[in-house]
Write a structure and sequence with these properties.
Shape: globular
Radius of gyration: 20 Å
Order of helices and strands: HEEEHEHEEEEEEHH
Strand order of the largest sheet: 3-2-1-4-5-10-9-8
Oligomer: single chain
Amino acid sequence: AVVSTQSGHYGRGNSNGLASKITKILMQIDAKAGGHLWKINLPVKNVMFVGIDTYHDSLSRRRSVGGFVASMNDIQTRYYSRAFWHDNAGEEVFSGLQPIMKDTLLEYYELNQQFPARIIIFRDGVGYGQMQAVRELEIESIKRAMLELQLQKTEFVFTVVAKRINTRFFEKFGTNYKNPFHGTIVSNGITKNDQAFDFYLVSQSVSQGTVSPTHYTVLEWNTTLKPEHLQQIAFKLCHMYFNWTGIISVPAPCQYAHKLAFLVGQSLHADPSPALRHHLFYL
């Protein structure tokens, strides 16, 4: 497709800003229409990465909406999205993921002619006090979906992602302290021992202030991967958000799930059309 733009006369000071805005708009149109703006090559293949997040419906405080977004190919450019509803006010943990997970796995099979060998889920939007509820409700419902499709041998990882934390890290340079480089992992010293394992990832760089790390808490670890593999994968997926050319603070499936839940809860207040499930219409 060829996109043509026309504009009137703009001063020299505005030309770069206008070109940047037009480029971003065209990139967003391309992504929403199914285009692949960029890609990554991961050493692990046939893996389905899933992002889950929730948002409270602005029209009816008696219910919340969740976003469920799963990758459908190895280069992380195709996704399948579903929205789901909670009828309890303020509820973040959802027990009805089984039919959504089953439907998503069947979509993956239809596109790839095989089920994923591994499922890695990044769950945003829950607090530290809700970990046990996530185990009992969400993780168990996902396992039931896998069992229903006879995927007992499929490797399964479930990680809770927390980006609104007070923890900060500094690296010593001579006599001064500076922000650590993006890609820095902290996996011991201040991490907890009451879960499978956890780690902090500094995925971004900032020019002012202090950089905020993201905390990853692994609740389910049924895989042959090593912890450092998950850490590297999480960092690489922070590069795959098509609405921003830089690095974001969470893996792209998480951010896509947030955008979907926000759009449905803030504007649509109803399920999106099934025809849009393979498109990033919510960017």
